[in-house]
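Collaborator request, handled under Task 6.
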Amino acid sequence: MFQDRAQGGRMLAHRLSGVCVDEAVVLGITRGGVPVAREVSRLLTIPMDVLVVRRVTPADRRLTLGAVAETGEPQLRHAIHRFGPDQLVEFVRCAEAQVSREVAVYRMRHAPLPLVDRTAILVDDGVVTSATARVACRLARSRGARRVVFAAPVIPADAVAALSDLADDLPRAVTPPRATAVRDWYVDFPAVTDADVLGLLGPVDEPATAGR
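Structure tokens returned to the collaborator:
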């Protein structure tokens, strides 16, 4: 159990200390992964950026059907057979609209850091289905990352197996035998707002880096 996302990030930074971080960029997966990524960036002195990814869900958000990132095609899971084509189109459209809105907010102040020939350290606050993580890993590869590391304070065993073909390394603090809600691993788990993300990214036109 972690006190909050910041503590999860500090524990994750310890796990990452053995990972080669030369020419690395820390990418917080929006929005919950950003406070975790900020601690990793601060403690390991690595530049930080965000990666905008949203889950594709029905209206009640209880089921994850897939995920969509700021670039690239939506990735859907097998559970889509429960819904008709028109419903799926609407679910994807809603997720894409959320992604577009976040990109407009965050990229207006911070251009994305280049990933070509660098190590991309993707950070989230936890994993349940691995849908978001898989899309994030694919996006980092498509942007030219030489090496992709996916890190989160808690990654269940089945997600570790599901991500092993996409990530070169999967540092984590806890590996439960099965997935539970991410919030179950935190004492303090508030919603992360756009204002929180912008504050963690740092001043306008100056990517957040540790040690400043």
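The cover message to the collaborator said: "The helical segments are 5-16, 33-44, 85-107, 131-142, 157-163, 194-201. The domain at 5-52+109-201 is CATH 3.40.50.2020 (Rossmann fold). Please let us know whether this matches your experimental observations."
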